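Why run this: before we spend reagent on co-expression, it is cheaper to look at a predicted model of the complex and decide which construct boundaries make sense. The entries below are exactly what would go into the expression plan.
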Amino acid sequence: MCGCGADFRQDRKVSELARVEAEDRGNLCVIRLHGEVDISNDREVLAAIETAVPHSALQLIVDLTHTTYLDSAGLALLLRLAERLQARRQQMLIVAPLGSPVRTVLELTGLPRVIPLEGRLEDAVRESERGVRDGRQESS
Amino acid sequence: MGSGERTPLKTRPGSLAQTFRSNPLSYVGKTLIVAFAYYVAARLGLRVALIERNVTPLWPPTGIALVAFLVFGRAMWPGVALAAFAVNLPINTNVLSAAATAAGNTFAPLVAASLLISVGFRRDIDRLWDAVHIVFLGALLSTLISASVGAGTLVLSGAISAHEFPAAWAVWWTGDAMGVLVVAPFLLSLFQRPWSGSLRERTEGAALLLLVAVVSLLVMNTDRGLMFLVIPFLGWTAWRFQQRGAAPAALIAVAIASWAAAHSLGPFRQGTLFERMITLQSFDATVAFSSLFLAALVTERMRDREALERAADELEVRVTRRTAELSAANELLKREIVERHETDQRLRQREGQLAEAQQAAQVGSWEWFIPENRVSWSDEMFRIHGFLPQEFPLTFEKAVEQVAEDDVARIRANVKAALERGRGQHLPDIEYRIVRPDGVERVLRGKAKLSVGANGEPLRMIGTVQDVTESKMAEREHRIAETLQRSLLPDRLPEIPGVLLTARYVPATSDMEIGGDWYDVVQLPDGRVGLAIGDVAGHGLRAASTMGQMRMALRVCALEERSPNRVVTRLRHLVRGQLDSEFATLVYLVFDPDSGTVRFANAGHPPPLVVRGREGATYLEGGLGPPLGAVGFPDHYLDVTYHLAAGSTLFLFTDGLVERRGATIRDGLDRLKALVAASDEDLEAICDHLLFEMVGSDVSDDVALLALRPVLLASEPLLLRLPAEPYVLASFRWTLRRWLREIGASPQIANDILIACGEACANVIQHAYGAKDGLLEVDLVLLDGTVEVTVRDRGAWRPSGGRGAGYGERLIRGLMDSVDVNSGSEGTVVRMRRRLQAGSQGERARAR
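The model came back. Tokens follow.
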């Protein structure tokens, strides 16, 4: 678990908006994004996630179940994160429950065509484990 | 003999005609009586005639005439003249001589009466001078006339020869004189005021007179020359009864002697006529003079003695009175001495008090006697200048020695101007600095007044000097503190949609020092509102600065900590650790407009007050912990949660609102509760009313009051004017969510609108104003089941770039039913609509 944007001296309003929670499962890292993401804190959130993701993790799941607000700035953040992970050969999945506010945004912008989207974390974990296995098979 | 007034004899000066006219009957009667008396007396006198039947040694008529003139007035002369003529006619040779003699006999007493009146003769003959006058003027001098006229007439008529003239003249003269001396006093004594003598005195008087008569008869019937024996009895009578007794006694003695002489009895048996004449006349004179003078003397002595006695009595009375006066004066004097002493004491006391008062007020007084250039200072004046009282004598130059150089110039200029004006006047007040001998600088405020003489010459200048150093410093500190406090309290409260907020701050009127009351409203990023109210102990600069630090610290903690009790606890640590144990109270309260909940923690502050419409008022008394900075209490604060329904009002206040001299805080709290429950709807009006009722115009302590009332947003269009800055977005979304919820939008649709609005606003923030500050205007209106959102800016859009740039527009168009964008030179307007009921593109998208 780690705080995000705790440096309120730069922009204290940001601090209360979002919280980033990271769970290290070996090859897999689960990032839970709590709260809201907008243009006021997207950079901090991105930096917090990047810091939280260990280099050892082959798979990253960004869980947006507890994200209450996400707009185009959040989308841009996710895209950028995915690009960086791809460059490091790390794969990324997004979890957003059906009918959630975030899900609408993701679907409207066609993000799932770029980044795999699951409705539940368990599905995403299963999917990513398979991806890791596949990846090993491919690489071995 | 009386004490009555003895007026000088006064006869009416008027003429015969006047006297006659005034009372003719009385006049004629009196004249006839006088004439009759004269005639009878004359006949009696002639019975003792020695020469030719008409020259007698005692001629009573002259005395009668004189008394008549003295008593009834000189107008009686016709009676006298008539009677005299009637007496002389038969004894004279012819009518002419009779008339001449009568004229002389009338004229003599008339002159005598006139002379006596002119010298102020008194009929009582009670003074020696009266006796002298009647003897010399009445008896001896005037009768020269009748004697000369009568004796001359006898010679001229041939009744006597010329060589007989001297003897006839002498007998005539002595006869007339004796008539006056013997008869006049007797008759006058009869006209005295009635004698009030007792029976015994009357008996004594009668016996004495009888004795005189008996002794006279005895001595006249012996030829041994014992006539002198009469004198002692006369003296006795005069001594006992004065004229009243002496005159009759003398008359008796003289009458008897005359009778004896006429009949050549006793002592008059031998000798010639002349020798008998001498003897009789000398006896008569002796008797008359002795009785007259002795009586007058005794009377005078008696009167003198009476006067003396009266004087003595009066003296006694006067002495008594004077003594009384003196003793009264003495009393007065004594009292005055006591009063003087008391006055003196009071004066000393007052001088002492004045000195004390001067010392207490730090006011010194001075006096400058200009002609001799002498200055006197009060004790306090010396003290103010850093000396011992009356340490040295002063002149003007010496007096201003310590004054700072440029200030001396101002003082001199003031004094010079006043002296030149040459009239009594007040000098302008002046503030100046002095340096004491120990180097300490003080600020003094001086007042002065000039007195001038009659010709405008300056005489004296007096003045007071007050040491205002402390008050100047206090004034300066007060100014700083006030400025500080003003700058520390929020100049305006944030406008939070759905929350009415108002605040009052009233500084104490009586106290020059400002208090440490403070309040603040913090907008928290999740849409909640933090309200703080507190009171820092003490006054002035220190309290104000503590208050400022507390306020800043609270802002920081409020953003970091979600729980009010954590905020309060951290402030307590700050106060105890950093602010040197300042004693302070605080309520920190967080209101969540979404849920309508209030959470607060209280550090020793008066409890928040909630009014729920008609349900009445309640104090939120839970969660009370120790004041910040109070030592010896555990750091233990609790959050209390309370639901603030729409239409409720929450009040936070400092103790100045409820504390009043002579009443307990509990009373104040009860009064406030009653007032709040009865007050009307408008929040501003309620606050004004509370201040007016609770505090009035005499604000003894600072008062801070903060009121919050949640209101429904949905009843009105939501019109927001926000700085075009990223940080406003979060709270904007909270407001928007609440409004959408209140208008009945489903969570899905609300979320769609929220995101679309967020995108539009983010666009404005990112693109409209560049580096400049700008305003973001968002209006949301519900019209016929459709939410219309207008997002406006006053800037110029720059081309969008960066990642995700295209997503924003795609999202807006995907989430809303319609979107219009109008961009012009005055800015850009994005108008979006979304129906609340039917499906939208978003739902269609979800449906895919």
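Residues 65 and 84 of chain B are 10 Å apart (CA to CA). Residues 200-356 of chain B form one domain. Bring this page to Monday's planning discussion.
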